[in-house]
Amino acid sequence: MSVSPIDGFAAGLTSETRNAVYKSTKTTHEKRTKLLFDHFPDANRLREIAGEIKQHVIENLDTYLPEVEKKLQANGVQVHWAATAEDANQAVLDIMRKRNATKIVKAKTMVSEETELTHFLEKNGVECLETDLGEFIVQIDHDHPSHIVRPIIHKSRRQVAESFEKNGLGKYNDDPNVITQRARVFLRQKYLEADVGLTGANFVVAETGRLVLVTNEGNSRFCLAATRCHIAMVGIEKILPRDRDLALLLNLLARSATAQQLTVYTEFIKGPRKPTQPDGPDEMHVIFVDNGRIDVLASDCRDILRCIRCGACLNVCPVYRQASGHAYRSVYPGPVGAVLSPLLAKEKFPELADLPKASSLCGACQEVCPVNIPIPDLLLRLRDKNKQAHGPSSGTPPMGAWSILASQPFAWKNALALGGTVNYVPRALMPAPLRKWQDVRTLPPWRGGEFRKWLKNRPSSGKAKS
Amino acid sequence: MAEKSSEFRKGEIMSDARTDMLGRVNKALAILPERAALPDWDAELAIARKLLEERDALEVFQERIKLVNGMAMTSVTELAAYLKKGGWLHGYCDPVLLSVLAPQLGPDFNLSTEFDRTRIDDYAFGITRAAGGIAETGTIILNDTLTSRRLGALTPWVHIAVLPRQLIHRTLTDAVQALGDDTNVIWATGPSKTADIEGILIEGVHGPGVEIALVLD
User: Fold this and answer.
1) Which chain A residues are closer than 8 Å to B42 by Cβ?
2) Are residues A228 and A96 in the same domain?
3) For residues A365 and A374, what is the distance between their CA atoms, to the nearest angstrom?
4) Is the CB of residue B22 less than 8 Å from the CB of residue A62?
């Protein structure tokens, strides 16, 4: 039997990378849990309510989108709509051309990763620079991010130092402090030269049209302090109903993403600068991007649109920890990616249909999700979707016989008793599908009926004990 | 004229995209038998009460800002000594603050009330006014009305925010409520940082490596 693509990637990792990914995801996850439960007596309730808020938003996007558009416009923001990745990229280019702008600095945005904006702009003669340190390193390496909030979790400082040297950013030095200072010096000139700053949005509040951005490095703030035009690419699901909901979501986001009480910079933008402020954009655009989201909204997997891109599900996932991000062959890795990536892939769904299967359905992803997305349920729905489309996969034996047995108590009892013979059947004599299934799995010895035996013979004094 | 008509066409395409997207959103949601309601939640839920207890807001603020590697100082003399020790003698200062701070900082300092964006590396520090603070998180709040220059508060290695003590909110929830109408509000919680390379914490990435709240009565 062929190895699944994810297994292939996992096997191809160096032990250095695997250890790095494992260690850092585990540490972040543990700190996140401690911080959340130390600070809030009812931390799970926070997640549930945040989930309800976002579920409410996505199920009412028909009213929220026009509402937020109106508020943004009232704040002096120009609103654009882009159905596809191409349209979104083109909208950015059009805004730039209108201003005769040739340079853009970019703070980290996942939606622009989806649309491959940097590549598109470079092809069209625009100098486009990622300013988040990790994303900048990914850019000069022509690599791909492997984690939603930690783009270069798969790289060692040695590799980073080598690519800095290769790109003329100084002689080899693998001290992270030196690397960071070199990036600081290089990028601050770029911010000042750029005419346009591009960001995403963590939240957009319908009530006020407030756009909220969080970064630790301060790169999005620099984009919005040095340039004259701000373009925000925003997925249509990023809306929150009220300002007050930010208190809940900001508390959850920082703890879930990076195990911080609050991200270093949290910026609330309500339109272009006033003339009294000398720095920052006097022109602001928001591009609402669909790029497959409305199809997700129409599907029974719409709950995934609650996602606030914190990466907590990656950090806790036993599969991600072994396979790292590139194994998911898409912008979104980990459990959220296993749901979202095949859905956003549209007609290329079959190419990523293996992702929902790469899960033991242990449920840890839902347990840590700040918006309580039922990821395991969604994974099952996607497995089913794939099955409906392509028939039973070759790796799984037919379950028809099992379902008959399991629904007839008498048949089940007999099957348990007879099942023991399996222990004595040589593998070569097993039916072909079962043999094939066992190529990559070892069956434990059959112990069917043990529980029933125990239940029947257990001492009856159990109740008196307490 | 030709320019105008192509502009117009572009506008039309845009509005088509809007109609198309909203139409598809409507269709996607029409199949739902009912919509999830917006929950009302108790603001108390998102407050880390344990960090606050019955203590004074300033005391909590000082404790929390330290935990994020920021600093809170309560006198200009203390600030002057710290800056001297770091060798940070030239910086940008909000013109409104100059008359108060310059005499107290003393003659060793060279304060510039102009910020020249072509010479950002000349400023070792930037002194601006804060619009508030958050005790629960050790956060400094800046806004466009009170911050004389966004760049002046961001690009120097040391940022000093002058924070009137009575503007410290107890909780993040209070600070959200007080966001108000300013076009730009930014919360800074400690110095600029990254852990992108091997998870090692480095401070001073794009913004200040030293973030100081100068809390004055």
Assistant:
1) none
2) yes
3) 8
4) yes
Give me the tens of pLDDT residue by residue for chain B, a chain 217 residues long: 444 444 445 555 557 999 999 999 999 999 999 999 999 999 999 999 999 988 999 999 999 999 999 999 999 999 999 999 999 999 999 999 999 999 999 999 999 999 999 999 999 999 999 999 999 999 999 999 999 999 999 999 999 999 999 999 999 999 999 999 999 999 999 999 999 999 999 999 999 999 999 999 9
A316 within some domain: no
Specify whether the backbone of A239 is left (phi greater than 0), alpha (psi in -120 to 50) or beta: beta
Query: Is the CB of residue B193 less than 8 Å from the CB of residue B201?
Result: yes
Task: Name the residue in chain B with its Cα closest to that of A159.
Answer: B197
CA distance A251 to B176: 12
Residue A427 lies in a domain: yes
| Chain B residues in contact with A152 (beta carbon < 8 A) | 196-197
Chain A contacts of B14, Cβ < 8 Å? 80-81
> What CATH number does the domain containing B151 carry?
3.40.50.10420
pLDDT digits (tens, 9 = 90+) for A445-454: 888 788 888 8
How many domains is chain A partitioned into structurally? Answer: 2
| Inter-chain CB proximity B198 and A156 less than 8 Å | yes
Q: Which two tokens stand for residue A465?
A: 């004990």
**With contact defined as beta carbons under 8 Å apart, do A320 and A25 qualify?**
yes
Which residues does B90 contact at the CB level (< 8 Å), separation at least 6?
B109, B110, B111, B112, B122, B123, B124, B125
Nearest residue to B71 (alpha-carbon basis) of B9, B28, B133, B120: B133
Rounded to the nearest 10 degrees, the angle between the axes of helix A176-193 and helix A219-226 is: 20
Phi, psi angles (nearest 5°) of residue A170: 115, 160
Whether A262 sits inside 8 A of B187 (CB atoms) is yes
How far is the CA of A249 from the CAs of A220, A301, A389, in angstroms? 19, 22, 37
How many residues in total does chain A contain?
466
Contact B170, B135 (CB under 8 A): yes
Place of tokens 């309601």: B37
Query: Does residue B14 belong to any structural domain of this protein?
Result: no
Using CA atoms, how far apart are residues A182 and A379, in angstroms rounded to an integer?
Answer: 43
The residue out of A293, A327, A344 marking a domain boundary is A293
Residue B183 is nearest to which of A219, A221, A270, comparing CB atoms? A270
> Which residues, in sequence order, are CB contacts of A156 under 8 Å at separation 6+?
A16, A17, A20, B198
Q: How many domains does chain B have?
A: 1
Tell me the residue range of the domain where A229 lies: 9-293
Nearest residue of chain A to residue B192 (CA atoms) = A217
Encoded tokens for A440: 């990559």
The residue range of the domain holding B61 is 51-216
Question: Least CB-CB distance to A217: which of B29, B197, B205?
Answer: B205
The enclosing domain of A123 has a CATH number of 3.40.50.10420
